[in-house]
From TrEMBL:
Residues 81-106 have a biased composition (Basic and acidic residues). It comes from Durusdinium trenchii. It comes from the Eukaryota. Residues 81-121 are annotated as: Disordered. The lineage of its organism: Eukaryota, Sar, Alveolata, Dinophyceae, Suessiales. This is Eukaryotic translation initiation factor 3 30 kDa subunit.
Length: 121
């Protein structure tokens, strides 16, 4: 008797893990955040973090209370202020370094300006 041919076809099961996700506790929200943030940071999609946050806020905007919306606005304003300050500090540091390089590149004067112009007065 010849051996039977294996006719077990491979079966693919697709599961949407978000369908099974239940968010009942704050720890569930924290877990979800910890899972999503690294993936958004590492994403190569154009403006992925912005798009995600923007779409989330737009979809959930009607569910937020006035206090929650104000708290979110305050958080965004604080974040923007910190970012602007950091950019200003970086620009200031860059300008100082450029000025320092320029001073190093210029040859030192043999005669100070006031002594040089004394002879012409």
């Amino acid at each position: 008797m010849p051996p039977k041919a294996s006719s077990s076809a491979s079966k693919t099961v697709t599961k949407n893990s978000l369908d099974q996700l239940e968010i009942k506790l704050q720890s569930d929200v924290d877990w979800l955040t910890n899972q999503l943030v690294p993936k958004l940071k590492a994403s190569t999609a154009k403006k992925a973090p912005y798009t995600f946050v923007n779409n989330s806020v737009n979809a959930l905007g009607s569910k937020l209370s006035m206090q929650e919306a104000e708290a979110m606005q305050k958080t965004l304003k604080d974040m923007l202020t910190k970012r602007k300050k950091a950019e200003q500090e970086a620009e200031k540091k860059r300008l100082q370094e450029e000025e320092k390089k320029k001073k190093e590149e210029l040859p030192e004067q043999e005669i100070p300006d006031d002594e040089f112009f004394k002879q012409y007065m």
